[in-house]
Predict the 3D structure of the following.
Amino acid sequence: MENLGRFDVIVIGAGVMGSSTAYQAAKRGQKTLLVEQFDFLHYRGSSHGESRTIRATYPEPYYVPMAIESEKLWRDAESEIGYKVYFKAQQLDLGPVENSSLVALIANCEKHSLNHQILNRHRAKEYFTGKIELPDDWTAAVTELGGVLKPTKAVAMFQALAIKHGAALKDKTEIIDLVTDKHRGGVLVSSRSGETFWGKKCVVTAGAWVSKLIQKVSNGATILPIQPIETNVFYWKIKEGHEHDYTIESGFPSFASYGEPYIYGTPALEYPDLIKVAVHGGRECDPNKRTWKPPASGTEGITMVIGHLKEWIKSTFGNGVDWEDGPVISQSCLYSMTPDEDYIIDFLGGGFNEDVVVAGGFSGHGFKMAPLVGRILVDMATGGKAAAEQLDEVIKHFKLGRFKDNPRGNVKEFEDQVRLK
Ligand SMILES: Cc1cc2nc3c(=O)[nH]c(=O)nc-3n(C[C@H](O)[C@H](O)[C@H](O)COP(=O)(O)OP(=O)(O)OC[C@H]3O[C@@H](n4cnc5c(N)ncnc54)[C@H](O)[C@@H]3O)c2cc1C
C-alpha cells in the first residue's frame, strides 16, 4: 500500500456536506483532504442539479434557528467567493387548517419570532395578485427567509473555497476502509485502488452510501438506519404570456404544501419558462443500482404522483401552468431517509472513539443547512467531546443513540412528510 500523506482532517464524500466541511476545516488552518469516489460534481448522489429550497419554516422547532444561522453562513461564503448561489425569495407554506405539521410550523414561527403573515383563501389571492389559490379550508404562512440555492454551483463554490484555504481534493477515490492507527493514533483511510492516507480525525459524509461504509468499517457493530430513496423532480411548462408571473422578481415564493401528499417547488429560475413542482417521496433503492427514471408510466406509483401534481397545480396555480400535458422534464435524485426524518450527526465511537465523525440521513431536507453542518462537523472533529457538549442543544436531536430505545427515533406529534411508494 502506498501511503499518500498525513492530514489533520480527512473528509470522505464530496457532496454538499463534505465540501462544506472541507472548506470549514481548511479555513481554520487544518491540513485537510477531501476524497470522492466518483468525479467531482457528479450527478449520482444528492447534491447535484439546479435548485434546492431554503426555508426556516419547520414543524420541528430545532431546525428553525439552524436555518437562520445557515442563511448567514451562505451569505458569508458567497461574499468570500464573489458570486451568488442563493437567490432569496419568500417562502409559502400552505395546507389544510387542521394539518398537524402546518399547525406546528406556524407555532414555531411565533415561538422563534420569524417574520410571518397568515393568509386565508381571500388574502392569499390578494397577496400573490391572483397567482395562488387556496381551498376554503386551507391556510398559509408567508415568511421572509426563503428562496432557491443552486446545488451544483454551491458544491463547486465550497470546493473552490476549500482549495483556496489549502485543502487537497481528490476524486475517483473510493474509500473502502478506516482503521485506527494503533501506533500513532488517528485513522488510516484506505481506497479501493490501494492508497492509504493518515488522518488525525476523519469525517464521513458519504450520503446514500454511508450505511454501507460504516457497517463495513465497524465490522457490523454500527448499522445506521438510513434508507436510500430514488426520487423524481418534475418541471412543468408555464403558459405563454405567464412566464414572468412565476419568477422571484415578480414576487413568486418557494413553496411547500402540507397534506397528502407533501408537494414542494421553487419559482421559475433555472429554466425560464418552466416551474419545478414535485412530490416529496420516492422508492427504496440501492444507490449503485438506480433506475434513473420514474417507474414506467401506467404503474400505480407514477400515475398517482403525476395525478396528484396535476390536480394540485390546476387548483393552486389556475390557468398559468400547463398541467394537462404533464411535466416536461423529470430528473432523478437520491434521498437518504432516517425513520424520523431527522439527521444523524455523531461520533462513530467504538474503537474510533471521537476520531471519526459521521453525518448522514439528511432525509431530503439537508441542503440548506450544509454551511452550518460543515461548521458543526469541524467543531466536533477538532474539539472532540468538549465541543460536542457545547453544541448539545443543536446536535442532541441527531444522535445515533436515539434509535436504541425506539427504532423510529425521535417521537413527533405530526405526520411523516416523505411518502414511499
Ligand atoms: C430531489 C431532491 C430535492 C431536494 N430538495 C431539497 C430542498 O429543497 N432543500 C434542502 O434543504 N434539501 C433538499 N434536498 C436534500 C439535499 O439535497 C441533501 O440532504 C444533501 O444534498 C445531502 O448531501 P450529502 O453531502 O449528505 O450527500 P451526497 O450529495 O450524496 O454526497 C455524498 C458523497 O459521498 C460520496 N461517497 C460515498 N461513498 C464514498 C466512499 N466510500 N468513498 C468516497 N466517496 C464516497 C458520494 O459519491 C457522494 O458524492 C433534496 C434532495 C433531492 C434528491
About this structure: Residues 12-18, 35-38, 45-47, 52-53, 174-175, 205-209, 213, 231, 233, 333-335, 360, 362, 364-368 surround flavin-adenine dinucleotide (CB under 6 Å). Residues 7 and 199 are 5 Å apart (CA to CA). Residues 370-390 form the longest helix (21 residues). The chain is about 30% helix and 30% strand.
